[in-house]
Every structure is written in C-alpha cells, then in structure tokens.
Amino acid sequence: MARAADVERPGAEHWVPADADVDALRSAVHDCRGCELWQPATQAVFSDGPSTARLLLVGEQPGDQEDRQGEPFVGPAGRVLDEALEAAGIAHDDVYVTNAVKHFRFEERGKRRLHKKPGAVHVEACRPWLLAELGVVRPRVVVCLGGTAARGVLGHDVKVTEVRGTLLTGDEAGPAADAVVVTTHPSAVLRLRGKDGYREAFDALVADLRTAAAAA
Ligand code: URA
Ligand code: SF4
Asked: Which ligand is nearest to the CA of 188?
C-alpha cells in the first residue's frame, strides 16, 4: 500500500501490479488512489476486448453510462464508435478498447453529472495503467480517439487536426507503441449529429479506423 507521501503526488504507479495480465490489472484498478478522481466516481472502468488484439483503441475517460455500468464505450459515444467500426469493416470483438483515464470526471448540476475533461495531471497520473495494458496486449496499431488519448499514449500533446489519419511510426509513435493513428473522439462526431458536417466527420473517423486496421 502507498505511504501518505505518495498519495500527495498523483500517480497510479503504486497500484499497478508488476507482470500482471489484463485480468489482474482489471481487478487491481479498483483499488487505485492515484489521483482524486476515484472518490466521486461509482467505479473504475477498465477495458473490453481480447488481450490478443492487433488493434487497440484508446478513448478519453468513462462517461456517465460507463461509470454506472463499469464497461467502456457503452453510452452514446460508444454507439457512434460501434457504427464507425462496422462501417470500417472492423469486428468489434477483435479490438481491445480502453481509456486514457479510468475514472469518470464530472461536475454535479442538480441531479445531472456533466462530463468534465480530465486534466493533464489526471492523464499523467493514470498513464501507468495504460502503459501496462499496452505492454501486455502489444497491439500492432494503437488508435487514439481524440487529444486526451493521444496525450496518454504519446506522453505529450499533439494537434489532432494536424496528425489525424496519419500512421505514426518510430519516434513519432512514442515509446509505448510501434504504430499509432490519432483520430477524433466519437463524442465530437456525436455533437454534430443532425447538423452540417456530421456525415463528413463520421466518414473521416471511419477512414482513420480503416487506415489503422490496414496496418494492423
Ligand atoms: N468516451 C470515452 O472516451 N470513453 C468511454 O468509455 C466512453 C465515452
Ligand atoms: Fe487511479 Fe486513474 Fe482512477 Fe486516478 S483516474 S484514481 S490514476 S485509476
């Protein structure tokens, strides 16, 4: 267990078991106190999908539904992601899906819990879980769904609009993965639903998923 001094400095290191498989990581994450987000959340949300996957998708953080159900991408953004995977010809059961941050960050507004973007401090604190997953799954290609995911995977900020859809390899892929594709978050596509630009945004997400799958 962590000493008090460790708790004052955010970081999940002390809770991530060494040499653990995905199941062991999944059960250990519930004890994590690596940052303050565990406290108001219902539960930690880990991953879904096979640890043998060649394609690994990283989202931002669990949303309201995910926090309640304990599974990633089971809410509205997850439906957009499922549609995009299907349109790209990728079998949902073949991909490993996780998030950069494992607890839901939100603001209370009356009875509603409004999504609040995780800060750089939360992404950094939670990164040991993500790195452990990348180390166990060792996918051929990692897809970062949005800027928060890219920060978690690459360890630094990128401009999603500049790098999206490009297969990043070598130094550009960072130390944690061999090949990375950054794309937009399905929530950003969802926000356009019923508006101009929705089709274009959805098709661009599908095209980026295809680029990733072709390299996997
Ligand atoms: N958005 C994410 O980034 N992850 C989820 O699991 C759900 C919504
Ligand atoms: Fe630990 Fe990540 Fe949850 Fe923070 S968000 S308590 S680092 S699992």
From this structure: 1
